[in-house]
Amino acid sequence: MGDARVRTLDDLSATPPASGEPSDRPADKGRLARLRTPRAPRLWFEILLIALSYWTYSVIRNAVPEQKVQALRNADWIWRAEHALGIAVEHTVNHAVNSVTWLIVSMNYYYATLHFIVTICVLIWLYRWHPGRYAAARLALFATTGVALVGYYFFPLAPPRLMPDGGFVDTVIQHGTWGSMASGNLASMSNQYAAMPSMHIGWSLWCGLTIALLAKPLWARVLGLLYPATTLTVIVSTANHFWLDALGGVLCLAFGYALACAWFGRLPHRLAQYAGAMELAPLKA
Q1: What percent of the chain has pLDDT over 70?
Q2: CA 222 to chain centre
Q3: 207: pLDDT strictly greater than 60
């Protein structure tokens, strides 16, 4: 009768072969050759790495030429493309939600804060409870963020709220709330034309999938799936992104997961929970 087993590298080398089984275990060796064993993360290194990576990302993102004219031209192109696809409902959603003051103000704060808070909390949760999967998940997140910089450089895009003739409401300015580094007095601190792809979607979807695939309580998995869906509603309601910006964020995340899978041999959630262990296919007892 077959059963799934978790074995460490030492276990594989120390366990004597069963009767009738080749002593060199070619199947196991071949599988191990295709997989990289994640090391246990070191707290000081991870804090330094995350801080340095985010600082580098921010510097590069804000150093990309804003190219206002091209960004507005690209926004017009995106808007026309969405009309052609029949998905250009951002204007309607923006005005409808903006009419409910408490809701749109809440969304402004959601947009400004949870993007960072939830991502950091998920990283901490992975570090503490899933150290064997942490490195691969972190690589997927970092690769997602890194490839987004390519989009910012080659496709500057104005958000809907900055389109002169778009008729969108900049909800942060209208309601006087602190809700975006790209609105009001904070606009000079952030590149306003780095909207494609949306990293609010890239990061929130990474968080949501990580929680949905690894958390045990059903309520936690449900919340994980609701988080990127809610984020999508927020970025459109506040006129910070088009629908197609969100698609760009999804594609960046797909690249991040593909890179992590190529490096570690499988997707992060399929690695062993603890560093140094390998989850192998079912072995005969």
Answers
A1: 76
A2: 17
A3: yes
Residue 252 has pLDDT above 70, yes or no: yes
pLDDT digits (tens, 9 = 90+) for 34-61: 456 666 677 777 788 778 877 777 777 6
